[in-house]
Amino acid sequence: xxxxxxxxxxxxxxxxxxxxxxxxxxxxxxxxxxxxxxxxxxxxxxxxxxxxxxxxxxxxxxxxxxxxxxxxxxxxxxxxxxxxxxxxxxxxxxxxxxxxxxxxxxxxxxxxxxxxxxxxxxxxxxxxxxxxxxxxxxxxxxxxxxxxxxxxxxxxxxxxxxxxxxxxxxxxxxxxxxxxxxxxxxxxxxxxxxxxxxxxxxx
Length: 203
Known about the structure:
Structural class: alpha+beta
Low-confidence stretches: none
Shape: globular
CATH superfamily of the largest domain: Mog1/PsbP, alpha/beta/alpha sandwich
Order of helices and strands: HHEEEHEEEEEH
Strand order of the largest sheet: 1-2-3-8-7-6-5-4
């Protein structure tokens, strides 16, 4: 039995319907994600919910002088922010999802481990970081590489920052810690102590 061959116009109409259907699905998925994000942001205004979200990223103990000022735990993003009440130094803790680049210590070292060089887009809206020194912590859970340097933000005030990578190979969980403050008050020691206490909880 011979089936009629559709005319080119019929094929075009079918392709157009498939395209419109796919576009509608994308719009619906996008709206659902946006509603989910808005709901999570509203929930984070409550301190108890904020703490819950932050500890879903990674469990931690609040360092002396810091307050939990922001947290979000959705499909993406997942992070929390601690802010020093006197110096305004911030410690941002972010989960690096599976599709992100430079998730492991080796990948981090390959990208950031270049003292004396500017590294583009270190994260959180900063244009670059001039790596002044690099180092690593060695907690029982594994090596944690970090760099300290001058941040290029496009603003008038000079800022300095620290970026570190915590990684659990058995669960493939990657956490970036990014601390920054005005250059005259920035204290990397505070951030490093916090990172050292955080490392065993990345699982």
